[in-house]
TrEMBL record:
<keyword id="KW-0472">Membrane</keyword>
<dbReference type="InterPro" id="IPR039309">
    <property type="entry name" value="BT1"/>
</dbReference>
<feature type="transmembrane region" description="Helical">
    <location>
        <begin position="214"/>
        <end position="235"/>
    </location>
</feature>
<dbReference type="Pfam" id="PF03092">
    <property type="entry name" value="BT1"/>
</dbReference>
<protein>
    <submittedName>
        <fullName>BT1 family protein</fullName>
    </submittedName>
</protein>
<feature type="transmembrane region" description="Helical">
    <location>
        <begin position="175"/>
        <end position="194"/>
    </location>
</feature>
<feature type="transmembrane region" description="Helical">
    <location>
        <begin position="54"/>
        <end position="76"/>
    </location>
</feature>
<keyword id="KW-0812">Transmembrane</keyword>
<feature type="transmembrane region" description="Helical">
    <location>
        <begin position="88"/>
        <end position="109"/>
    </location>
</feature>
<feature type="transmembrane region" description="Helical">
    <location>
        <begin position="357"/>
        <end position="376"/>
    </location>
</feature>
<feature type="transmembrane region" description="Helical">
    <location>
        <begin position="388"/>
        <end position="410"/>
    </location>
</feature>
<feature type="transmembrane region" description="Helical">
    <location>
        <begin position="28"/>
        <end position="48"/>
    </location>
</feature>
<feature type="transmembrane region" description="Helical">
    <location>
        <begin position="324"/>
        <end position="345"/>
    </location>
</feature>
<feature type="transmembrane region" description="Helical">
    <location>
        <begin position="268"/>
        <end position="289"/>
    </location>
</feature>
<feature type="transmembrane region" description="Helical">
    <location>
        <begin position="514"/>
        <end position="536"/>
    </location>
</feature>
<dbReference type="GO" id="GO:0016020">
    <property type="term" value="C:membrane"/>
</dbReference>
<keyword id="KW-0813">Transport</keyword>
Amino acid sequence: MITALLRWFNRNILELGREMRLSYLPPLMVYVAAGVSGLTGIVGTFFVKDYLGLSASFLAALGFWAGIPWALKMPIGHLVDLLWRHKAGLVYLGASLIAASLLVMIGLIGNPAAMREVMSAEAWFVLSTLLAPIGYVMQDAVADAMTVEAVPRIGEDGRPFPDETVRLMHTTMQMLGRVAIIGGTVIVALANVVMFQGSETLPEAEKVAIYVRIYELALVIPLMSISGVLLAGILKRREARRLARLGHGAAEIDRLVHAPEQTTAPNWWILGGSAAFVALTLAVGLSGLGYGQELIFGASFAIIGVMIYRLVRELSDDARRTLLGTVIVIFVFRAMPGPGAGAGWWMIDELGFDQSFLSRLDLITSTLTLAGLFLFRRFMAEKSIAHIVIFLTLASTLLSLPIIGMFHGLHEWTAAATGGLVDARFIAIANTALESPLGQVSMVPMLAWIANSAPSHLKATFFAVMASFTNLALSASQLGTKYLNGIYTVTREVRDAASAAVTVPADYSELGQLLVTVLVLGLVLPLLAIAATRLLGLRSA
C-alpha cells in the first residue's frame, strides 16, 4: 500500500516538478496574478449586499457585460501575434486598467461621500466591474501566447526536441498554468482568513476598514503581472547568450528567441469582424436597447463561429472534427446557468455564513481544487473530454443535493440528530471538500490540446478564438442565470442609506425552485450535447 502511494506521488507530483523549466515561470507569474484576482471576492459580495441596492437579476446582467471582454480575446490574441516583439505592452496596459478598477473600489468603500459627489455608488461599482476584465483579458491573451513560447525548441545539446517531447512539455506547461491560477486562489484564501479572523464580532466601521485594506493589498496583482513580463525579457537575453555559445549566428538567434516560427499576416476577417463587434457592443450598451444582451450574444456567437470556421481550415480533417466536438461539449457544459447572487445572500442571512467562515470555506475550496489537479492528472491525460464532462456532470448533480436539502431544513434535522455537530457549516464544509477537487478538471485537457494543435504562425490567435468561444459560454450562463432570476424572484433586505428604512424586504421563498431548476438543466443539457456530437460523427479531445 505504501509503495503504491509513493509510486502515485512520484508519478503525479514529483514528476511534474522534475518537468518544470525556468522558461515556464514568466507566464506562470501572470497566471498567478489572475488567480489572486479573487482576493476581493468576499468583500465584493458583502459590499454589494449591504451597501448597494442591486437586484440578483441586475447582477447577473452585469456579469454578462463583464464577460464580454473575454469575447474580445480574439482580436487581442491576433494583435499579440502581429506585435509579437512588443506584446509586453499589452500586459502593462492591462495592469493599468486593473489598478484603476481597484482604486475605484478603494475610494468607493473608504470615502463613499466624495465618490457620490461625482456619480452614484452603483455607477462607480459598475465601472469598476467592467474595467477589471478588460485588463485581465489583455494579460491572459499574452500569457497564453507566452506558454507556447516558453516551451523550448532546442535542447542543451543544440538539437531540436522530438515531437513527443514537445507535446509532453506543452501538457506540463498547461498543467502548471492551472496550478498557478489555483495556487493564486489559495494565496487569496489564506489572506482572507487572516484578514477576516474574528471579524464577526467587529463593529461595521472596522469591517469597512478591513475591506479597504484588502483592496489596497490587491494592488499587488498588476505588479505581479508586470514582474512576469520583466522576467521573460531577462530569460530571453539569457537564452540568446546560450544559443550564441552553441555557435548560432545573430540572425538565427533573433529568429529562435524573438520571432514566431512563421510570420503572421494581418487577418482582416478577425480585425474587421472584431471592430464591428466592438462598435455594435458599445452602441447597444449605451443605447439601452431592449434585448441588447441577447443581440450582443448572438453577434458574438456568429462572429466567433465564422472565425472558428476559417481557422479550422488550417487543420487536418481529423483534427477539425476533434476541435468541433470538443468546443461543443465544453461550451454546453460551461453554459449551464447558476442560481445567481440570491443563493449567497440566503447563506449569509439564513445560515449565518459570515466573512470569516466564507474565507475559511474559500481556503478549503482553493486548496482542494489545487490537490484535485494532481489527483486527477492521469485521469485528465488519459480520458477524453466527453468522458470527463459526463463524470463532472453526474458528480456536480449529486453535490448540488445538500444545498437543496438545507433549503428545506436538512441542516436542522442533522443538527438535532447529532447534538449540533452536523449543522449547516459542517454540511457546507463537507460538500465543498467533495466538490472542490473537480473544479479545473475539464480545462487542462482542452488547453493542452489547443497548445499542441495550434498552427505555429497563429499561436495566440488560435488560443484566443478557442478561449473566446468557451468563455462565451460563461456569458450564456449569465444570461440563463438572469432569465431564471426573472422567473424565480429572490431578494435580500435593502435599506435606504439615509433613513435606514426597509425599501426591499428579504424573500427567499422561491430559491428552492430555482435551485432544483438549475440542477435539472445542469444534468440534462451536457449529456444531450455529448449524445449530439456522437450522432454528428464528431470526436472530443
